[in-house]
């Protein structure tokens, strides 16, 4: 039996690194396909899905500026990287028969459509997956903030942050065996304890709008579907 989703409209945020598989850089097509299939399962349940994908598998603004590049230029390169990832995901979704739109915060009309809120809402109502690309369109921000911003604008019920681990821990569970996972935690605790869930501006934006953040493992097969039904292991930040 299929799990019954408890959500109607959600934001799925994944990092660019989630798409690179074991390659260490760029897009790994089988990994992108695997994630597209996870999204399809949830889409098939009737959940309206927004997505934001980072760009860290291709370019990070901070790295560029550390190497002497002007920060804003480097950030624009990072934003462009997210567009590449979004197009890769769109293509993988299309191969699964899922209709989607790539919507960019920076105009590039030949490549994807510009962000127009009402238009994006309409796409969701028509059950098209909306992949929001180019971050917020502004330097000095991250795609975590972009995901939170768009989730608010699209009236998503929650942000689902797919990571390599199944929630938020008190210390890095990869390095420490005795790391403890939180079942739930407040936005303020995440900020005070400097837990690396999302950057501080994203957490604050979620907090100020009562938008829950659900951290779960994207590596778990069927994980997204299970989490959407309220089962499985995850941490909720609220
Ligand atoms: N970026 C930006 N403004 C935004 C979103 C992203 O300038 O609103 C740039 C920034 O340089 C960032 C890069 O795009 O380093 C890639 O995004 P991010 O680091 O959030 O990707 P992730 O870590 O999720 O893969």
TrEMBL record:
Regulation: Allosterically activated by GTP. Inhibited by UTP.
InterPro entries listed in its UniProt record: AceGlu_kinase-like_sf, Asp/Glu/Uridylate_kinase, Uridylate_kinase, Uridylate_kinase_bac
UniProt xrefs under Pfam families: AA_kinase (PF00696)
Annotated spans, Involved in allosteric activation by GTP: 21-26
Self-association and partners: Homohexamer.
Gene3D superfamilies: Acetylglutamate kinase-like
Enzyme class, UniProt record, top EC level: transferase
Organism: Actibacterium atlanticum
Keywords: Allosteric enzyme, ATP-binding, Cytoplasm, Kinase, Nucleotide-binding, Pyrimidine biosynthesis, Transferase
NCBIfam families registered for this protein in UniProt: pyrH_bact
Every Aspartate/glutamate/uridylate kinase domain range: 9-217
Reaction equation(s) it catalyzes: UMP + ATP = UDP + ADP
GO BP terms in the entry: 'de novo' CTP biosynthetic process; UDP biosynthetic process
Compartment annotation: Cytoplasm
The protein's name: Uridylate kinase
Homology family: Belongs to the UMP kinase family.
GO molecular function: ATP binding; UMP kinase activity
Pathway, per record: Pyrimidine metabolism; CTP biosynthesis via de novo pathway; UDP from UMP (UMPK route): step 1/1
GO CC terms in record: cytoplasm
Enzyme Commission number: 2.7.4.22
Chain positions recorded as ATP binding sites: 13-16, 56, 60, 163, 169, 172
Chain's role: Catalyzes the reversible phosphorylation of UMP to UDP.
Binding site for UMP: 55, 75, 136-143
